[in-house]
Amino acid sequence: MLSGLKAAQPDFSQLMELDTIKDGFERIAKRQKLSSTKTQEVINQIEKEVDQAIVKMHTISSDASESPDHTFILQELRTRLNDMAPVNQLQGCQKELIVALTKYVKLLEKCFNQDISKAYKSMDFGIHIVNEIIASHFYRDGLFDLGDCFLHESCETDDSSLKVQFQEMHRVLHAMKARNLEPALSWVAKNSEQILQNGSGLELKLHQLQFMEILKQGGRDEALKYARVHLSPFASVHKAKIQKLMACLLWAGRLDQSPYTELMANPHWEKLADEVTRQFCSLLGQSYKSPLGVVIAAGIQGLPTLLKLTTVMTAKNQEWQSMKQLPVPVDLGREFQFHSVFVCPVLREQGGNENPPMLMPCGHVLSKQSILKLSKSSTRPFKCPYCPLDSVVSQCRQLHF
Fold first, then answer.
1. At what angle do helices 160-177 and 266-283 cross, to 10 degrees?
2. pLDDT tens for each residue of 10-30
3. Rg (CA), the chain
């Protein structure tokens, strides 16, 4: 039994099935490219021989006083084409491509032609919940027409409120791609209190980037005016950042030669778009990553183990679905490790909705009550009990279960 269970653990080939399929496809693509290149070479050779024969015919026609005889030229062309053997050249490369395609079909059948129904427990699913998750996945990715079509064909009620929220999110992200921060700033202004409770510095980051964009155009006075209105409220907590931004004013019109060029780099825009998406989903009560995408990705990693376990247990006339715990581990990546229970390391009490876990700037996590006790004030800096870094309550971000 033990040896059988050990055998149920995934071997290298199982874990690398998708890589094998990808490698096989890349080999097919390479052979197809070689075949196409060879075919074009043969066609070019034939075209060259035909063009030369035509030139010779025109030469003879212009020199001859009577109707010329092109028989010799045509016979010479036929001989040269026979020597080239274009059909044989094409058959060789086509044969290699066909053989590779045949092997790839067998590889696909081996990897995917399996009955996966034995690898999961039979349970009742709420079909309406599943449909809602699928539609939400489409809306989250901006595929609104597809989401509407899916809900219509599955006879589900259209959840327009969620759709409208995701439409607003994609309008903001689309504007950011065009280097327009106004929609994002407007949205943050309307939700600043909730975003601040999440411990996110999104509002400051957006104003900082907008300030740099104004200054990039050479508008020193306009940038200074913008800073006085939008950056000054953050000066008490983020003094060092504001000072750095003010130093940029000295380089107006030549920021690309300044020590602060990294403040305008493309990664700042990408990270900011990612943070906007994260905060949008948080305020909607949605996870940052699509639940459907997470489930499918985790299933792809865990399925080979469960399939082999099913085969081993069936051979021993045993039913694994009745077990409370699997006899072998199903190893998933860290991105699939979730914790629904948090115990504060300071108070040694379990967290909850009233006392949620809070992520400090240093990366350590304490309960909200612990942070409030340590800070004694919402604006007073306090030291992390596990490292020497200082934090303030506004810099701490709430983590969701």
1. 170
2. 444 444 567 788 888 888 888
3. 33
